[in-house]
């Protein structure tokens, strides 16, 4: 699994986009396609760091290009 150098358990949409080097709208597409799991805290949407790692692992295993 990918390491989590920031130590954060949950990332914002913007942080997840920066980590994957994609745009914010791509993150929302991945969420809608159920590729990324989200956690809602009130009105805030957060993405667990481990979910991002699992997504990258799936991409590598499937031989797909990143988003």
UniProtKB/TrEMBL annotation:
One Pfam family matching this protein: HTH_17
Source superkingdom: Bacteria
InterPro entries per the UniProt record, alphabetical: HTH_17, SinI_DNA-bd
Any one Gene Ontology molecular-function term assigned to this protein's record: DNA binding
Protein name per UniProt: Uncharacterized protein
